[in-house]
Amino acid sequence: ARARLEVVPGVGVWTSAEVVQRSHGAADEVTVGDLHLPGIVGWALAGDRHADDSEMLRLLEPYAGQRHRAARLILLSGLTPARRVPKMPRVDIGLL
Predict the structure, then answer these.
(1) Average pLDDT for residues 56-85, to the nearest whole number?
(2) What is the dihedral of CA 64, 66, 69, 74, to 10 degrees?
(3) DSSP character for 79?
(4) What SUPFAM superfamilies does its record include (predicted)?
(5) According to the model, what pLDDT value does residue 71 have?
(6) Please, are residues 28 and 65 in contact by the beta-carbon 8 Å criterion?
(7) pTM of the full predicted structure?
(8) pLDDT score at 23
(9) How far apart are CA 31 and CA 18, in angstroms?
(10) Using 50, 70 and 90 to split pLDDT, how confident is the model at 90?
(11) Quick check: 6 pLDDT over 90?
(12) DSSP label at 78?
């Protein structure tokens, strides 16, 4: 299913993984190429906020067959690395 989706211009590995996770219930299709997911999974499983896709896949190996579900549970757990900088203060743009 992913290979056929990726034939469509503009559909890459990230989009095809997201689609088959939802349309086919693909429990093992991990989203590769996501900006935040590797760091969150790396932080939750190894304390490494700078994990990349290959490190994330290595950490999820024990959950083979259920890697997408394991990643989703990690996301839903709220185990995320602390912010490195404070959030910007909210400003009323009407006053600008």
Answers:
(1) 94
(2) -40
(3) -
(4) DNA-glycosylase
(5) 97
(6) yes
(7) 0.80
(8) 94
(9) 7
(10) confident
(11) yes
(12) T
Helices (H), the chain: 2-5, 13-23, 37-46, 53-59, 67-77
What does the pLDDT read at residue 82? 85
In whole angstroms, give the CA distance from residue 10 to residue 95: 40
Tell me which residue range forms the domain holding 75. Answer: 2-79
Tell me if 36 is assigned to some domain.
yes
Q: Which secondary structure element, helix H or strand E, spans residue 11, and what is its range?
A: none
Residues 63/76/22/60 CA torsion (nearest 10 deg): -20
Amino acid at 14: W
- Tokens describing residue 15: 């989009």
Q: Is residue 91 part of a domain?
A: no
Is residue 18 in a domain? yes
What lies within 8 Å, CB to CB, of 93 at 6+ separation is none
pLDDT tens-digit profile of 22-66?
Answer: 999 999 999 999 999 999 999 999 999 999 999 999 999 999 999
Q: Does 92 map to a domain?
A: no
Q: Into how many domains does the chain fold?
A: 1
